[in-house]
């Protein structure tokens, strides 16, 4: 059984939260403009709780820049923030190739991936 796990990790990478050598499975989130090949990555948390916290902070920062405006984008972001845990659960369990949220030609994405683990004083800190 361990051989199958090793082969999966070598070919596919570890699942979210799992580690393999210097790497950890994580969620990537960020934005990309429709038609652009260059996404802007915002964060790479290793747990669903960290993902929720990071997205909440990112969306609240967006709302703080929209001083007093009552646009459809603001209403959409407020609606997403109200139901953020449920929406994240549904998105993570579904097809993550689809955008998490779309606003005026900009799509917010959440994907699974692998990143290098962080070390402090010679020890991993995840």
Please describe what this structure looks like.
This protein is an alpha+beta fold and 126 residues long. It has helices at residues 2-11, 48-65, 72-82, 84-93; strands at residues 19-20, 23-33, 40-43, 101-103, 106-116, 119-120, 123-124. Strands 1, 2, 3, 4 and 5 form a 5-stranded antiparallel sheet that branches. It has a two-stranded antiparallel ribbon with strand order 6-7. A hairpin with a 2-residue loop joins strand 6 (119-120) and strand 7. The chain starts with a helix and ends with a strand. The mean pLDDT is 85.
TL;DR of this structure?
With 126 residues, the protein is an alpha+beta fold. Helix content is 39%, strand content 28%.
Largest sheet: 5 strands, antiparallel
Number of strands: 7
Average pLDDT confidence is 85
SS strand fraction? 25-35%
Shape: elongated
What is Rg?
17 Å
Alpha-carbon distance between the two ends: 26 Å
SSE order, as H and E? Answer: HEEEHHHEEEE
Number of helices: 4
Give the % helix.
25-40%
Task: Give a topology summary.
Layout: H1 2-11, E1 19-20, E2 23-33, E3 40-43, H2 48-65, H3 72-82, H4 84-93, E4 101-103, E5 106-116, E6 119-120, E7 123-124
Antiparallel strand pairs: 1-2, 2-3, 2-5, 4-5, 6-7
Index terms:
alpha+beta; 4 helices; 7 strands; 39% helix; 28% strand; elongated
């Amino acid at each position: 059984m361990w051989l199958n796990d090793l082969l999966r990790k070598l070919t596919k990478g570890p699942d979210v939260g799992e580690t393999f050598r210097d790497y950890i499975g994580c969620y990537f989130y960020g934005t990309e403009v429709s038609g652009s090949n260059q996404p802007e990555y915002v964060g790479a948390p290793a747990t669903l709780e960290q993902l929720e916290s990071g997205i909440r902070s990112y969306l609240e920062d967006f709302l703080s820049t929209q001083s007093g405006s009552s646009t459809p984008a603001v209403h959409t972001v407020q609606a997403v923030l109200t139901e953020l845990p449920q929406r994240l659960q549904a998105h993570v369990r579904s097809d993550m190739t689809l955008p998490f949220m779309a606003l005026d030609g900009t799509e917010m994405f959440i994907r699974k991936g692998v990143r290098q683990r962080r070390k402090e004083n010679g020890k991993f800190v995840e």
